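Q: What would this chain look like folded?
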Amino acid sequence: MVIAKKTGTWLVAAILMVMALALGGPAVADGLSLKDQPVADTKRGVWFGGYDVVEGARYAFDGVILAFNRDLSKDGFALRAYGSRVDFDQDPGDGRGWQGDVMLGYMFHRGDLHGSVYVGADYQNYKLSPDDPTADVRGVEWGYKVAGDLATSRDGPIYFALSGSYSTAFDSYWSRVRYGFNRSRFTFGVEGQAFGNEEFDAQRLGAFLTFDVNLRPGTPIEITIAGGHQFVNDPTGGGVTTTTGGGEGTYASIVFSTAF
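A: My prediction, written as structure tokens:
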């Protein structure tokens, strides 16, 4: 799909810009995911997972990032592994998809900014019931994947984050921008997303709230809840309302992450 390819090209360019930032300038200590962690409390990795629901689709994911230097607060190479499953409605029937990627990356810190860039392999598998041999997204595809993110810490008054990824498997792309405010233990604001594959393109506009829960001393769990409205483009002009990414309507998501 032309829109997906154009968006994917834009994401690749943005990630290359992030890499340029990573290669220049002095490094400073700052945490990757839980920015409040003191430098003395060294963390070697981050686990994250969550669940997302929208009209006609349910999406669950899980991932881990491991710093090779065993210290997330310092610049260095990292390994990221990520997996997801989506269940979606069709007319008639339903579908299910599995996705997994393993990528090598580089994490960096520049003043109040921190970010990362990753490159690796991506696996996707979609099964439809009943099967539809004419479907654009069906069966197994392997591809190359790139991903990147750039964000401010939660120490200052303003929060900004930009994330994106692109995979040659089914021409899949995902991007998100967040802008908000840091107030005590809470970060909140607005978000916008654009994502899709060979079958569909969707956009989201909503709000998010991030806060920490201290279940164990020194190891807080960061929780982000978000919600808003999803808009779906109809590439066929035939009134398609549900795809592998769900249909148009309200979305809600919750994400957990913790450093270890």
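Residues 29 and 73 are 5 Å apart (CA to CA).
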